[in-house]
Design a protein that fits this description.
The protein is of the alpha+beta class. About 20% of the residues lie in helices and about 35% in strands. A 4-stranded antiparallel beta sheet has the order 1-2-3-4, with helices on one face.
């Protein structure tokens, strides 16, 4: 439940404060420690160009291509620290 809340807050903040960034995917991934939460984000910068068309027969965005290099957010709950790492 905590992770779902954090993901919702990140999604909301990107939509509100970074309107040129489109969040393609956010999910929890394996973490180096039980006291750390690691989230993987894949985003696109909106350039004003029309979006790429979805593959034929694919109506959902779940299987749509996403950027190759993710961004990782690492939340250290024991030390109450947050770090952002490139993929």
């Amino acid at each position: 439940k905590i992770i779902a809340t954090v993901i919702d807050e990140i999604r909301h903040s990107i939509e509100r404060y970074e309107p040129r960034v489109r969040l393609e995917r956010i999910r929890e991934v394996a973490s180096p420690s039980l006291a750390k939460i690691r989230l993987e984000l894949r985003c696109r910068l909106e350039t004003g160009s029309p979006p790429e068309p979805a593959p034929a027969g694919d109506e959902s965005s779940a299987d749509a291509p996403v950027p190759e290099r993710p961004i990782y957010i690492l939340i250290d709950t024991a030390r109450q620290q947050l770090a952002v790492e490139p993929g």
